[in-house]
Amino acid sequence: MKALVKQKAEPGLWLTEVPEPAVGAGDVLIKVLRTGICGTDLHIRSWDGWAQRSISAPLTLGHEFVGEVVETGRDVADITPGDLVSGEGHLVCGSCRNCLAGRRHLCRATVGLGVGRDGAFAEYVALPAANVWVHRHPVDLDIAAVFDPFGNAVHTALSFPLVGEDVLITGAGPIGIMAAAVARHAGARNVVITDVSEPRLELARKVGASLALNVAKTSIADGQRALGLREGFDIGLEMSGRPEALRDMIDNMTHGGKIAVLGLPAQEFAVDWSRIVTSMITIKGIYGREMFETWYAMSVLLEGGLDLSPVITGRYPYQDFDAAFDEAAGGRGGKVILDWTA
């Protein structure tokens, strides 16, 4: 089968033939229809320091996908050939304290699809049935392909109650934009999002952000004044991994505010802990999705009318992967999709 592979320990990707994956007793074989390009895939393609430390070549990339079930192992129940599915890309041990307690998203032995094992940028992918999410209601294939990052957005945005709250999101990448849509849909009063990319800020406006601020020109405090906020933001969602973004967020939170942090910084940095303590600010780290509570919430949000279509800004046949990766790396648009049916 065709697959997009990190074939050598150097920059680049290779479209090549690889064997179809084996299907164990508890596995599901999926014919891949569409995939989404993630920042992780960009790191692997460029072969940066993180990739060099984390990846062993050869490796088939990809963890954002939607496909059709074509075969199931003998021990698999409730999943049948023909089902439309997406996959949870964190494969867990099942036997540690957190897994046994039902907190699989906290497993210390997590292996990442397309990072620690061959992934979904291929014509077929095999996954444990426990990692397969069946779409029981109609869903657009492009949106189903990005359920993984959509889950990051939902997990972050729904970490704290949102109804009637004023929400600040720092970082208008695709996940930040999806989080803005979720926060608005879930009942936030105001949703303010910041970035320095005007095209991405415009996408945030399309999904319902109350105010999209270019912080190279306008401060968050100016945004507060424009909305008539007197005491700061109730909820903060940090999506950028930028030190200045988190610092600005802390400076603009109300006393007792709550911050969920998804953005991964490149290195350690200082924050004003005295401000956090004296303002009684709660900070919660977010990684991945809650399995499978977040997935259930995603499906319900879409059934309830949440529109993520503006977030999909690029579509390419898989043979044009270089152009697709170049667009994704440009940092000006939303999610870029590869079509594996061409």
UniProtKB/TrEMBL annotation:
CC annotations in GO: cytoplasm
Function as written in the Swiss-Prot or TrEMBL entry: Catalyzes the NAD(+)-dependent oxidation of L-threonine to 2-amino-3-ketobutyrate.
Transmembrane segments: none
Organism of provenance: Streptomyces gilvosporeus
Domain Alcohol dehydrogenase-like N-terminal as annotated: residue spans: 24-133
Domain Alcohol dehydrogenase-like C-terminal: start-end pairs: 174-300
Gene, per the UniProt record: tdh
One example GO MF annotation: L-threonine 3-dehydrogenase activity
Annotated positions binding NAD(+): I175, D195, R200, L262, G263, L264, I286, Y287
Record text on cofactor binding: Binds 2 Zn(2+) ions per subunit.
UniProt subunit comment: Homotetramer.
The keyword Zinc appears for this protein: yes
Reaction(s) catalysed by this chain's protein: 2-deoxy-scyllo-inosamine + NAD(+) = 3-amino-2,3-dideoxy-scyllo-inosose + NADH + H(+); L-threonine + NAD(+) = (2S)-2-amino-3-oxobutanoate + NADH + H(+); 2-deoxy-scyllo-inosamine + NADP(+) = 3-amino-2,3-dideoxy-scyllo-inosose + NADPH + H(+)
Binding site for Zn(2+) 1: C38, H63, E64
Stored Pfam families: ADH_N (PF08240), ADH_zinc_N (PF00107)
Cofactors required: Zn(2+)
Pathway the protein contributes to: Amino-acid degradation; L-threonine degradation via oxydo-reductase pathway; glycine from L-threonine: step 1/2; Metabolic intermediate biosynthesis; 2-deoxystreptamine biosynthesis; 2-deoxystreptamine from D-glucose 6-phosphate: step 3/4
Compartments, as annotated in UniProt: Cytoplasm
InterPro entries: ADH-like_C, ADH-like_N, ADH_Zn_CS, GroES-like_sf, L-Threonine_3-DHase, NAD(P)-bd_dom_sf, Zn_alcohol_dh
Family membership noted in the UniProt record: Belongs to the zinc-containing alcohol dehydrogenase family. DOIA dehydrogenase subfamily.
UniProt-annotated site: Important for catalytic activity for the proton relay mechanism but does not participate directly in the coordination of zinc atom, residues: D148
Keyword Lipid metabolism: no
Active-site residues per Swiss-Prot or TrEMBL entry: T40 (charge relay system), H43 (charge relay system)
EC number(s) recorded for this UniProt protein: 1.1.1.103
Record's protein name: L-threonine 3-dehydrogenase
Residues annotated as binding Zn(2+) 2: C93, C96, C99, C107
